[in-house]
UniProtKB/TrEMBL annotation, chains A, B, C, D:
Residues 145-201 form the Potassium channel domain. It is found in: Membrane. This is Two pore domain potassium channel family protein. It comes from Sanguibacter suaedae. InterPro entries: K_chnl_dom (IPR013099), VG_K_chnl (IPR028325), Volt_channel_dom_sf (IPR027359). GO terms for molecular function: voltage-gated potassium channel activity.
Amino acid sequence: MDRVEEWERRSERALTAAAFVFLVAYAVPIVWPRTGGTVAVVCGALVAVTWAAFCVDYVARPALSRDRRSFARTHLFDLAVILLPMLRPLRLLQLITLLNVLNRTGVYGLRGRVVTYATGGTVLLILCGALAITDAERGHPDAVIGGFGDGLWWAMATLTTVGYGDTYPVTVTGRIVASLLMIAGIALLGVVTATLASWLVDRVSDVSEAEQAATRSQVDALATEIRELRAELAVRSPDERAGPPLG
Amino acid sequence: MDRVEEWERRSERALTAAAFVFLVAYAVPIVWPRTGGTVAVVCGALVAVTWAAFCVDYVARPALSRDRRSFARTHLFDLAVILLPMLRPLRLLQLITLLNVLNRTGVYGLRGRVVTYATGGTVLLILCGALAITDAERGHPDAVIGGFGDGLWWAMATLTTVGYGDTYPVTVTGRIVASLLMIAGIALLGVVTATLASWLVDRVSDVSEAEQAATRSQVDALATEIRELRAELAVRSPDERAGPPLG
Amino acid sequence: MDRVEEWERRSERALTAAAFVFLVAYAVPIVWPRTGGTVAVVCGALVAVTWAAFCVDYVARPALSRDRRSFARTHLFDLAVILLPMLRPLRLLQLITLLNVLNRTGVYGLRGRVVTYATGGTVLLILCGALAITDAERGHPDAVIGGFGDGLWWAMATLTTVGYGDTYPVTVTGRIVASLLMIAGIALLGVVTATLASWLVDRVSDVSEAEQAATRSQVDALATEIRELRAELAVRSPDERAGPPLG
Amino acid sequence: MDRVEEWERRSERALTAAAFVFLVAYAVPIVWPRTGGTVAVVCGALVAVTWAAFCVDYVARPALSRDRRSFARTHLFDLAVILLPMLRPLRLLQLITLLNVLNRTGVYGLRGRVVTYATGGTVLLILCGALAITDAERGHPDAVIGGFGDGLWWAMATLTTVGYGDTYPVTVTGRIVASLLMIAGIALLGVVTATLASWLVDRVSDVSEAEQAATRSQVDALATEIRELRAELAVRSPDERAGPPLG
């Protein structure tokens, strides 16, 4: 199994870099649609190359692994990330890889990690949602989302479940992107509330924890009492205790 | 009572199949409104047959039961499911039966079951909400929801409480369907948040659980101390202990 | 103090009835705006009479009480309920009295009472919100809420924070009513989630409760051990124990 | 370090007053846009003076501190509050200082303080959001938010995530203000729910707390048992105990 681990350790930085390059190469023609043909060609090439890198990684890992069947079973999500790019805006799901960067922030504690991932995921979601919706809506005659700025604004209003309705998707791809963002919005609300609730419950229960500490000190007092009893018995009959070894 | 249980065990699969057939037969004329007259007639017949199957089940169970009065009292909800279909789009409430399929997924633990039911219920709600709203709105001159695609999009935006306002019901039946979906949306938000919060509280409190374990180990130490005291007393006076049985 | 309690016990049913009559008399001219002049006059009279009843109750209680100052201080909310009716749609705040009916439902347990009050309060809020918004908006040239049906639909969409935007208030009074309903919506979301979370935390923690029970049984074992030690000591030296009273 | 503390104690009231003056001087030309030129000049001067006061405070504190480096590192937020005013409507972030007033309300307990800060912060957010959005949108040809009243209404609908869509920002500054308010809305929802959940969990767990008390009383019983054992041993052998001091 260590050949897979070695591959993963070596390829991790390369894949994170590839995901970052993919994000930029995908974003440039969407954010500045009037960039010249050369830029568009370069960006297209970079998107293709980074996608190829992810494919190589997906094929290499089971090839290096001894237990290929369980790999295929436990890495279905990776396969989805590779194959989904067929639908252009959903290609951005590949960027989940970027969240691994957060593993290096050195934040400890479950709640700290939840907050870090939620914040990182939210920023990534808004960015990718804005890119995907702009890509999906642009060109449609009835579209109300005209550029990346509108896309960002729409992503914000959707993720927070405000939904003014001044901007909304009209294409099928746009509505699928919107649905994913809405579900993420519900999850985001849940994570924010749950983390706050867990923190509050934990802090408030510090008082009752002090009561539990009292119980522990009671047991300590009990132990002292028994130890004193033993000491008294030892003092009371030193001859008796000395007796048996002599006899 | 076991006659009722036997009936329920035997009829469970048939009723789940009936609910599934009902869903399909109800959905087909709504999703493809231009299907020929034959398809519409077949679907109408299937809807009627499956409804009849649910009626038979509702009548058969108290007939087989010894305690008919308590049956009527505890199965008011089943009666509502049977009688509500008078209002066409609300007939879909019958599909709650389909959630029983989730009982066979073999998910254990309270939180696992809550997640499974919430996910299954959400998918079913969006599907049924979309069918019901399309059925209710279609034909109304001011309707903005024109087909099943619009219905699905509207159900998503309503259940997640985003509510863009690009699609909204204008008929009374549509607004009742929408109100049910809004209430479900609030409940969904609550379930997502509560499950996350419960998981976080549980994971974070693992630390204080270790403190409780410390208390238990204290009691263990105390028990050892007392056992040693007994052993010492026994060693100290073997003659005294041997004495009473002799005398 | 018991004269106040006697007054409250005697007047409770009358005041609940008055609040109910107030709701109906207030609602009729709003729901059916084209009712004849006689009905409007009767309803107006009933609204005035019930308001007078609440005023009498507010004046009677401190008059019967020995400690008038603390009464004024602790019943500021009651005073607000009496005086607020100056603003017509806010008069409905008087209906909080109706929630006292829920005290008689015989639901025990904190969570049960929270659920009962939240459900009752939500129904009352939607009803009163719809009446208040219809009353406030009707007659305004730009109003999009034309009748009680629109009002109910708007109240639903606002309280659940969906907010399609097909109906929205345009008058200042309407926007104040809307703001109150939005705040209630946030509180409702909170209550639903909190109750679910509390229930889940409670059910899941049943397992760790079993662990606490184990600790208690450990202490029981310890107590048995000590009791046996005492018994042994008593058996070992019956003569010594009998000795002191004889000597 | 005490020179910094002395400065902070002395300047606290002055800075709170400055923040309040800033809020009023900033608000007046926005709420009443047709006020004469003199009022506008006075208000502009007051905004500049209060801003200077905050700058002086920010420069004075590290100058008085011994440990200047750690000051710069731990007061980055203060720097942001000072420098952000470049963007006009975001200047209102300076008003966070006003929340310190809440420290003097004498509310004890973690949950009480959370509720106080959430309520105070919400009122301040709605006020500042309304001022900022009116300031940002006014003058734009497509603006739908025409005055402070519209701004307040929009802030309410945004913070509660209702988002009707009858009013929405169209400028970039307005959309940034809106995004901040949406994030605050999610946090507000989280705080309300978390506080309610923590309160419910705490109240419901009072029952299991009584069970813990039972454990403590068990330990008390155990301690009594051991104390009685010691007393018995002392009574049983008074001569033995008296012996050692004599010998």
